[in-house]
Amino acid sequence: MKNKKLRSLLISIGVILVLVLAALGIGFAVIKSLLAAGVVTQMDIDNTIKVGGKNLLPIPIVLAIIILLLVIFWNRSNKFNFILKWESFVVFLVTVLVSLSTMVFGPLEGLMNADNANSEVRKVSAATVNKSNRLAKQIAAEGTVLLKNEANFLPIKAKNINVFGWASSNPIYSGSGSGSTNAKGAVNIYDGLHQAGFKTNDQLLNFYTKYQKTRPVVQMMRTDWTLPEPKTNQYSASLLNHAKKFSDTALVVISRPGGEGTDLPKDMSKLGMGQSYKNKGDWSKGQSYLELNKREKAMVSMANKNFKNVIVLINAANTMELGWLNQYSHIKAALWMGAPSIKGFSNLGKILKGQVNPSGRTTDTYAYSLKSNPSYNNYGNFTYANVTSYDRNKAAYAHYTENIYVGYKWYETRYLNNEKAYKKTVQYAFGYGLSYTNFSQKMSYLRTDSTTGKISFDVTVKNTGKRAGKDVVQIYYTAPYYNGEIEKAATNLLDFAKTKNLKPGESQKIHFTFNREDMASYDEANGGAYVLDKGTYKIQVKNNSHDVIASRDYKLADKITYDKNNKRSSDQTAAVNQFQNAEQDGTGITYLSRKNNFANYKKATAAPSQKAVLKSSLIKTATIAKNYTNTLPTSGKMPVTGKKGNLTLADVRGLNYDSKKWSQLLDQMSVEDMVKLVAFGGYQTMPIQSVGKVGTLDFDGPAGFSSFFPSDNINTTAFPGAVMIASTWNKSLADKRGEAMGKQGKEAHIYGWYGPAMNIHRSAFNGRNFEYYSEDGVLSGKIAAKEVSGAAKYGVYAYIKHFAMSNQETNRIYGVLTWSTEQAIRETYLKAFEQVVKTGKAHAVMTAFNFIGNRWCGANSALLNKVLRGEWGFRGLVNTDAYSVGFMNGTEAIANGNDMMLSTNGAMNSKVTDTKNPATVRALRTASHNILYTVANSAAYAKGNYKKGQSVLWDYQKTYKNYIITAAVVIALIQILGLVIFKKKYLTKN
């Protein structure tokens, strides 16, 4: 009898352990698949375990107690053992059910929302997708830049083309990361040629495909920089002979990938962590990734030697060193197509044939040597010797010593009145691009209004050539510079416009109007203000940043200071110094100055010391590691929370932000509601039942909606990258692109868009340059403003990002301490954001990982409250970038103007604490107000999308609640069944 009971005990324990191990096995398999798919990272899992693990603790505890009880009482009567085992089984099921329920609807609520959000996505209509796809093709067509065209070689009449370069078999469509696009269904280079009627040499394509089929991985945390170019001795004689017989024309493709999380190497002999490349002999010592390597040079030489006519296609979003285009006698033409997305190459053959006339312009300056950029030595991996940061031995920093002299503003100023030196340094100016036809541009006289400060004029563009085409009108200004005073570039982009498609002989008049204050410079003296110095301002029409077509003078007799008594018309409050603490870190930074023709150039642009130390006082106040202190004093009256009321978010749609009804609605929210709304802001805004707020979806990415969570319903358009949209120099196209994003978002039920990204191309080596527009804030801002306002027409709010000064990927997630002058911050790095807020009416912002000075952008009151909301008048929500790094702190963030944390699991201090403090609750209330205000005025509450009284929960929440109810019923039935068996087996016998 004892052996039978012992056997029964062991079987019971064995069954329980098998079930537990099976559950663990399934869990690990799911986690492994999620990691492999890139849906989650190990950090996500670790953080989820940290925040959710305590909810699962009752399961092993109850299991241990059950096993202990079974061991202790295993020798009791059959009746007792039956009750013990049966009830233990029921208790264990109840424990699992309760634990999982509290975890799913507690710490994992945000993650479950994000994971299941795609079930809420609706397919976009075929008509909308087709229209958007046509637009994507048009953007790529107008964004293609004709760099070289000797003796009007293009368009070509040849029907056969040899395509050289391994990249031709696997081109770059975009970059990697949140701005990436899926290459499924892509029109490749060969497709684009075939669609225009060209025949290609299939032997070459087969050769490249056989050599290597897939492109090396370039992505976050793991990058293979190998360029899989065959050696020239691998081209057989028969292959080359066949190619020469096939055609005397060769198209050579050169590409460079880039992506989020890693910068392109400045020196291929000094790669960073997680970076590698094969074929070690490909690069000479000191060569950068943006130069041709040895195999590529040999391949280009081979093409030049064997073919009479060579065309080069540069398929790279990052500006490369292209001096070699002029070193080969048979290179007749060159085109740039960076980040064209999956439909862009459909234009390639049409452009070569002349069916499409290229009208793109460069968005960056192409220098013969990237080392001539004044930021070169101060771009990369630099750390302080005396500061420990999150998960690192040393805190990272970046010195923006080039000051305002970024891109063309450096080259045009440095080589002013020195044409010979300029031509030796700059190959293609900012705004450069050729056409298959010719244009003339005539500028009218200026019309000025001294009362309003408005200046206007017209430019008449005429097609003087023999082919139809579009032209770009570029307007620049030059402000009077006084040696040693306010820094000013020799030329500055003011405005631009693109013509319609003009037939030969056809003209178009374009009207320009701007405010005189748009030419003001920021003066940090006496507390700071924008100023117009007296003197002569030149308003110029140019072909590009360098070549002047026409010029008019505007003379200002007296200096104008835009202070609190005379603010700029576009400002809500006058600008004053806000970032003076971001200029010096204690290392003695020297900033580049135009004084005495850049006399301090050598000192200002030198590489920083390897033994740099951060000033001790700045360490104490820095928001790094665990240096946070609550900046909200405990004071004031506790706000009303959890008050009963009947208002819903739908009731306040369209009301003024300061309406009393908003206050009444916010009174209905509990502290718990607000904490949840703020903390779980990853790819969503959470549903809040107390105010009838529906859950909404926020999706990546800048090139078109995408999600890290797979879904068959996402059928939205992949657009060309921002750099290619900007290269169209076409505001109308940007507006249409924004409208397309808005319409697709509305149809898909995606109301928040993590984009566009508008950081400046400070360096050609930024891995994320494909996702950003330009080296210039005006071009970036005017294009982005059209995209944002276009999306808003359909109720989709765009998170303009990354606010601000996120200009490198190296060390980005560790929080780079960024040091710059206030003038450069305002005139260069905030310029695009300012325009989008003021003219694009942006309602959402994503802050950056980096710091301005020693203050994280996500907890920077000067940036978010003083400038964004105060000076610019922004009204909307501010979200963090991905909440996964240790220096972020939700309580500190809301105290300084950041409303929502891009977190799905509430981990790593994303949940606001100190909620007994009235000041903290007031900050929570303000953050909630900003989030709700943005959502209420989006398409989420538009007529047809929302019905009064509808459930605010996600479908999955209702589904899981049904699961829980079903499980509870099943457990109850098991309990009843056990009682029936017990009664029948034991009680009836007595």
Walk me through what this model shows.
It is a single chain. By secondary structure, this protein is of the alpha/beta class. It contains 27 helices and 33 strands. The strands form eight sheets. Strands 24-25-26-27-29-32-33 form a seven-stranded mixed sheet. It has a six-stranded mixed sheet with strand order 1-9-8-6-2-3, with helices on both faces. Helix 7 links the parallel strand 2 (160-164) and strand 3 (199-200). The two termini are 20 Å apart. The model is unreliable at 33-40 (pLDDT under 50).
- Name the average pLDDT: 90
Structural class: alpha/beta
Number of strands: 33
Helix content: 25-40%
- H/I helix tally: 27
Please state roughly what percent of the residues sit in beta strands, choosing from under 5%, 5-15%, 15-25%, 25-35%, 35-45% or over 45%: 15-25%
Please state the overall shape, judged from the principal axes of the Cα atoms: globular
State the major sheet: 7 strands, mixed
Low-confidence region ranges: 33-40
Taking Cα atoms only, what radius of gyration do you get, to the nearest Å? 31 Å
Spatially, the strands of the biggest sheet line up as 24-25-26-27-29-32-33
Distance between the termini: 20 Å
